[in-house]
Amino acid sequence: MTIYVKLDRMLQRRGMSLTELSETVGITIANLSILKTGKAKAVRFSTLEAICKALDCQPGDILEYVDDKPPR
Fold first, then answer.
1. Which residues make beta-bridge pairs with 67?
2. Of 53, 55, 67, 65, which Cα lies nearest the Cα of 8?
3. CA distances (Å), 52 to each of 1, 36, 44, 49, 57, in order?
4. pLDDT at residue number 71
5. Dihedral angle at the C-alpha atoms of 45, 9, 56, 21, nearest 10 degrees?
6. Distance CA 51, CA 7 (A)
7. Chain centroid offset of residue 15 CA
């Protein structure tokens, strides 16, 4: 199983840069970059909530679960 982070797509749709998002939600660009590249091991609900509020979206717009198991 894999969880993909689609933050780039949502930023592009909203016409917002990572720097603008960082300033809006109060999270460092470095930490947002870790999340954006899929290297984050966890994300706090408060962080996810702040990002969703700033981008006017739902968590499912940013995160996608894909089952990597082949069908039986």
1. none
2. 55
3. 23, 14, 12, 5, 5
4. 65
5. 70
6. 9
7. 15
Cα dihedral across residues 48, 13, 31, 39: positive or negative? positive
State phi, psi for 66 to the nearest 5 degrees.
Answer: -130, 125
| Average pLDDT over every residue of 40-57 | 96
Give the predicted TM-score (pTM) of the model. 0.87
Cα–Cα separations (whole angstroms), residue 51 to 2, 21, 34, 67, 69: 21, 8, 14, 25, 30
For residue 10, the Cα-to-chain-centroid distance in whole angstroms is 8
